[in-house]
């Protein structure tokens, strides 16, 4: 008897999952209002909670200190989280200007190697 | 020239052209802009934070934040924006870290004129540049602190260089290839020079979205003063009122927004919800019906339908003390 009662309660509770008893009104936030007027419609194609979870995992994988991961994720808006979740590997990571010097050096090296110029006097 | 020579020369020319961007585009700092802006600007007092290896993001961000009155350093910001695995910093994180320091992360319209106007008004600009070429893209953040129209030059705080001059042609090529991304840190309550309404409101709303409500309120108030005919700042302030539980003030704000823009579905949806909270059910029903028509098929339709369902569960008419329609 007692067990059956518990089973009924659990069944009822499970039926109730995902079906809120009261209708919840939704206030449109200011950011939603801005984005609705400036962007295409598919704002919520990626679930915000999933995007947040993915960004958190990627930050950890990319070596962000565990203590910092949460604060950094919390400072991002939902659309930024979606951008990062989708394209973190493709987004430019601003680093430093040394790469350019490398390129120039590379060009000079090629020209030197094929004999167009002769600036590196000790170069074979 | 030998065959090897030709290959080498072709390769070198190709790399040089890529590095130079699209050459031959005509005058870069339009002489006509000399009429609108000071012919020469250099913001000498802009602080300088020399970067560590790969840390131009924290250094450039520290520069614009310090210029806007924040006490900070590149070291302090590294833990907020540097990604060790990418050996660099990503744009959304610079924006987010600006918010964490209670500044409005305003992104400039991608035109040279906006850049010059901002500098002319005394505000340094953080820019992204793409310096490398082909398989070696070198992304770099720097801060533009000046220009000289006559000499066609741009002045930057860049990397380990306190003062770096670039020809405008060279700078604009590198900025172009980074899609002319430019960030300004704005003190809430003030506006960036020559502000763009939508860009400013998006930046301000981001502050609210990550829990910087007080800074957002100052930003919205400044927007309401600057653009009195726009509905969005009224809606934004009313949303903050609603969040405080001040439903009467919120209702007034949403009503003002709906009057300024009768086709604003967000304002009508939110007004219907606050009217429901106030017990003004007849008014709420009327407002949500208008909102449903306006939002049908659009990005706000799900929110409006949810509010409509909530309003539909309410019995009765308007309580006493309800606002006039």
What does this structure look like?
The complex is a heterodimer of chains A (124) and B (325). By secondary structure, chain A is mostly helical. In chain A, 27% of the residues are buried. Chain A is built from six helices and one strand. Chain B is an alpha+beta fold. Chain B contains 14 helices and eight strands. In chain B, strand 6 and strand 7 form a beta hairpin. The interface between A and B is large, with 58 and 87 residues. Strand 1 of chain A pairs antiparallel with strand 2 of chain B.
Structural class determined from secondary elements of chain B: alpha+beta
Average residue-wise pLDDT of chain B: 90
Work out the number of β strands of chain B. Answer: 8
Structural class of the helix and strand makeup of chain A?
A: mainly alpha
Main beta sheet of chain B, described? 7 strands, antiparallel
Please state the oligomeric state of the protein chains shown: heterodimer
Low-confidence stretches of chain B: 17-26
């Amino acid at each position: 008897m007692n067990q059956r009662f518990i089973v009924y309660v659990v069944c009822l509770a499970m039926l109730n999952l995902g079906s809120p008893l009261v209708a919840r009104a939704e206030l449109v936030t200011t950011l939603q209002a801005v984005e609705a007027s400036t962007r295409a419609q598919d704002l919520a194609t990626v679930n915000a909670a999933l995007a947040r979870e993915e960004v958190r995992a990627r930050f950890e994988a990319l070596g962000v200190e565990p203590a910092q991961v949460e604060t950094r994720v919390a400072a991002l808006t939902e659309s930024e989280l979606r951008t990062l979740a989708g394209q973190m590997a493709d987004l430019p990571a601003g680093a430093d200007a040394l790469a350019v010097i490398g390129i120039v050096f590379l060009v000079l090296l090629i020209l030197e190697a094929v004999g167009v110029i002769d600036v590196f006097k000790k170069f074979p | 020239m030998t065959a090897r020579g030709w290959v080498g020369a072709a390769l070198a020319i190709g790399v040089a052209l890529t590095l130079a961007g699209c050459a031959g585009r005509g005058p870069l700092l339009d002489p006509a802009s000399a009429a609108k802006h000071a012919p020469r600007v250099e913001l000498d007092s802009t602080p300088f934070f020399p970067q560590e290896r790969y840390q131009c993001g924290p250094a450039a961000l520290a520069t614009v934040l310090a210029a806007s009155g924040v006490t900070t350093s590149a070291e302090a910001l590294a833990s907020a924006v540097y990604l060790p695995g990418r050996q660099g910093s990503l744009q959304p994180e610079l924006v987010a870290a600006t918010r964490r320091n209670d500044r409005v992360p305003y992104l400039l319209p991608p035109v040279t004129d906006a850049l010059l106007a901002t500098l002319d008004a005394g505000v340094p600009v953080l820019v992204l540049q793409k310096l490398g070429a082909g398989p070696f893209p070198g992304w770099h953040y720097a801060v533009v602190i000046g220009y000289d129209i006559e000499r066609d030059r741009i002045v930057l705080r860049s990397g380990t260089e306190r003062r770096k001059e670039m020809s405008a042609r060279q700078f604009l090529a590198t900025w172009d290839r980074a899609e002319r991304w430019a960030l300004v840190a704005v003190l809430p309550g003030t506006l960036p020079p020559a502000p763009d309404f939508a860009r400013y409101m998006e930046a301000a709303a981001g502050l609210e979205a990550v829990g910087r409500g007080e800074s957002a309120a100052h930003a919205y108030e400044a927007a309401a003063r600057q653009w009195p005919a726009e509905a969005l700042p009224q809606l934004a302030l009313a949303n903050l009122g609603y969040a405080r539980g001040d439903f009467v003030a919120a209702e007034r704000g949403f009503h003002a927004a709906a009057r300024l823009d009768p086709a604003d579905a967000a304002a009508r949806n939110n007004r219907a919800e606050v009217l429901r909270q106030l017990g003004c059910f007849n008014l709420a029903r009327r407002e949500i019906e208008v909102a449903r028509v306006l939002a049908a098929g659009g990005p706000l339709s799900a929110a409006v339908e949810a509010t409509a369902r909530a309003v539909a569960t309410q019995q009765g008419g308007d309580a006493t003390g309800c606002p006039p329609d």
